[in-house]
Structure formats: C-alpha cells, structure tokens
Fold:
Amino acid sequence: MTIELDDSGWGDPIGGVFIGVLRIETNEYMVKEIEVTHFQGPNFTQKTFLTRGLELVMEIFRCLQVTLDEPIHVCRGAVLDGVREGLKAQNYQVIPTKIEGKLQELVEANFVESLGRLGISDIPLVSGKERFFRQLEWIQEDLKNREQYAKTGWKNWPTKIRNWKPKWRRKQQNLLGQPLIIKLGGSIISDKTKRSKARFDIIRQLVSEIASISSSPIIVIHGGGSFGHFPAKEYELHRGGRSKRKRLGLTETALEMNRLTQYLIEAFHEVQKPAIPIHASSVIVALDGRISHMDIESLREFLRQGFIPVLSGDVAADTVTNFTIISGDQIAMYLARLLNAPRVVFATDVDGLYTADPKEAPNAKRIDVITPDTLAQVFDEIAVGVAAETADVTEGMRGKLNEIFKGLPKNCEVLITDIRKPGTLQRIAAGKSVPSTLLRHSS
Ligand code: IPE
Structure:
C-alpha cells in the first residue's frame, strides 16, 4: 500500500510542527507534534527537530505497522530532512514529493486546531500571509506570556519578528478599503413571535439605506430571528450531536437561514445593488462553538469588486461537537478583526441600549458608551429591562454584549443603533457620530 507523509507548521511562528502519516488505501491516519521547544534556543541551532521528527515518524510507523515494501511519499520540506534520511537508512522506499489533497488538509487542520487550543481562534487552514500575521498579532497582544509558544530560535526572531507591530499589517490591508460591517438583528427583520415570518417592509427600508452607501465596502450579516432560532432551539443544535433527528434539524435550520438571506438578496436586487450570498455554513469550521477557521477569500474578492456580501448567523461544522450554531454577532466581530473594520453597526429598532424600554418608560436613559470597565455596571442597569426586544431579551442582550467585547479589536468601535432613519448610515460610514450606544475599549 502507499504511505504519504507531510508536515504543517514549519513556516508558522507559533507552535511546533505537526507530522501526519496517511495510508492511502485504508485511510489510516496518525499525527504527532515536534514540540515547539525544538524550535527554540540551542535546540534549534543544533536542529534537534530532525531527530525528533524521525523518532515520531518511527512511533507512527510502528502503530500503523508500515512495511519496507510500501512506498513512502514524503514531502520535500526541510523539517523532514532527518525523516527522509533516516527512513532511507532503514531501507524504506522514500519518494520525495509534493503532498496535496487529503493528507495536507488533515495535517493543516491538526496544526490549526492546536493554535485554537492556545486561544488563537481565527486562523486560516491554508498557510500564508494571513495566517502568519494573525499569529504575530496574537503574540504581540501579550508578548511576555505568549513568547514561550513561539519558534524563537528563528534567526530573525529577535531582530525582526519579535518587534513586529500590527500597524504594518493594517497598512497592507487598507488597500482594500476599510469595510463597514452591518449586523441586522434577527428580531428586527423578522417577527420573533411567529415562526418564519419576515418583516418585508423593514427589510426593504434597511436595504435601501445600505444601498445608498458608496463610500466604503459593506458587509451585511443578518441574525436568525424567527427563522433559524425556532428549529435551532427545538433540536438544541448549539450543543451539537449526531442523531439523525438532530442532523435533519440542522438541515431545516440551514434552509430557514438561507430563506431569510434570499429575501435580503432579493431586496438588494430590487434596488439594483449587486449583493451576493455567502453561506457561513460553507466557509466556517468551528471548534467547540467558536469559529476556528473561516475561508474569506471569495468574500474578499466580491468585496473588492463592489458587491455586498450577505451572510447570516448559521449552522456550522464543529470539530468537537460535530456541528453547532454560530451567531451573526460572532461572525461580525470575527470579520471586523480579520478585515480591520473601524466600525461595526448592530442595527436594532431603537437608537441604542436603554436602561428600560424607552417606548414604555419615559424616564429610560440611553447608555451612550460602554467599555470593558463599565460592562458590569451596565449589566446591573439593564437588568430591569432592555429596549428594543422582547421577553427573553435581557439574557440575549447580555450575550450580545459579551460576544462583542470578546471579539472587539483595539481600533474598532461598535454602534448599536437604528439605521432606518435616512442619512444615519451615511453619517456612520463617514465616521460621524449618531445617536447610539457605542462599544469600545476606552471611554
Ligand atoms: C442565529 O444568529 C443563527 C441561527 C439561529 C441559525 P443570531 O444569534 O445572530 O440571530 P439574532 O440576531 O439573535 O436573531
């Protein structure tokens, strides 16, 4: 039978290097990690990773009972020099080659998952600039504590990489133009009390405001409202699962979300604005309910061409729980970080977050700014009542605020407001102030 051997992580600044072995005919697969310590200090200079790599491969070969008559296709990467030499010396038939396809994807996924366990969640599966800089950004957020996970043995670590500043990346990303990300709350575009009932008048109103913006690229993400939330709750999809009943529930939820997305796309088409649906379920992989990978290449390309990509909170494959629900809030903040968005708008039906429902309590006060320091106090204030939404909402709003702060990049601010009033969105796109609740890192 044929054996393939590939590595992942050699060009990544964080973590060790993963070596995966696949027996093609039987799909038997095993992976092991050359620990990051082999890429640090004198170990790296002495190239201890070469012998460690061979040791690990021999362990895998023993488990898989690889025999001398099986051709071994080994990736040409330098980290595997020791493996190729060592195997040849033991009379294995080594064929240096370029590994693509299934094995490559598996090893990359294992490597990316290991970064996910460290807490770096938004890492592309494909190695490259985006993945590299995202890791540097993560280290720089807390250099003192995180440097231990880095390949500090690299020659340019102390001179260059260690001193890398996120603003260099921003400059590069700005070539695209900083996008405005708009999350349309499910409870505004649908009637939350009636299953799968869209509010077409509101959808049209919102879409025509959004379509009037030409100054910056726009990404729209809508929530589930009475479409996705009903089946998602009925089948408890956020907990994952595997039964046929649950999997059918997942299909049902995806269908519901697609339907709502379609209504939005139709509304954009009606006003002759090019929009394109991007189904989050097709581009996201989650790790225990959090996005661990999102392929944004088509989104980026459509954005560059002037389309409005329309996404939604959605179902997603999950490497821990099989599948899960990813909220539009999580996607919005994930994209804000990845695309360096200066502003994210959470569109609701009041101009901010109030201490009580302003439609019922005339003395309700709007909370103008929330920072991580004032969040706990805000939770106390809104405990008595929250504007804009109905019964289950206090918890919903807490969840929303927590989600926003979890993903809020340093230079980004989030506005919770009503964008239906003509001109409001234009002011936001121009960086001007509007009546709203602002969420940001400092007051
Ligand atoms: C939920 O998305 C998506 C599904 C239920 C499939 P959100 O959590 O962003 O939806 P809203 O805005 O709260 O309705």
About this structure: Residues 185-187, 223-225, 228-229, 232, 253, 257, 313-315, 325, 327-329 surround IPE (CB under 6 Å).
